[in-house]
Amino acid sequence: MDISIRQYIKSNFKDSNMEEIKKSIVDSIQKGDELTLPGLGVFFEGLWNNTDDNCKQQMLEILEQNFKDRQIYEKY
């Protein structure tokens, strides 16, 4: 059986509202569970694919700064 993580995540959240999606994101980040990383990646992929170049630039600047500041690694 071939399982597509993208399709699985999209199917699980297709009827979710903003609050449910936010709760899933926050819970995943707070738990720090490595198993949720692919799901967060699917969320990010959807965000990236559906934003304009200005928004993408802002995301890249935020990510770059977080890596430079090492804020991402503070919990680990």
Key phrases:
about 0% strand, globular, mainly alpha
Quickly describe the structure.
The protein is mostly helical and about 80 residues long. It is built from 4 helices and no strands.
What is the strand and helix layout of this fold?
Elements: H1 5-13, H2 18-31, H3 37-49, H4 53-69
Describe what this molecule looks like in 3D.
By secondary structure, the chain is mainly alpha-helical. It is about 70% helix and about 0% strand. The chain contains four helices and no strands. It has helices spanning about 5-15, 20-30, 35-50, 55-70. The model has no long low-confidence stretch (mean pLDDT about 90).
Mean pLDDT: 89
Number of helices in the DSSP assignment? 4
User: Using only CA atoms, what is the Rg?
Assistant: 14 Å
Give start-end ranges of low-pLDDT stretches: none
Major sheet characteristics: none
Order of helices and strands: HHHH
Report the count of strand segments.
Answer: 0
Q: How would you classify the helix and strand content by structural class? A: mainly alpha
Q: How far apart are the termini?
A: 35 Å
Helix content: 55-70%
How much of the sequence lies in strands comes to under 5%
What is the general shape?
Answer: globular
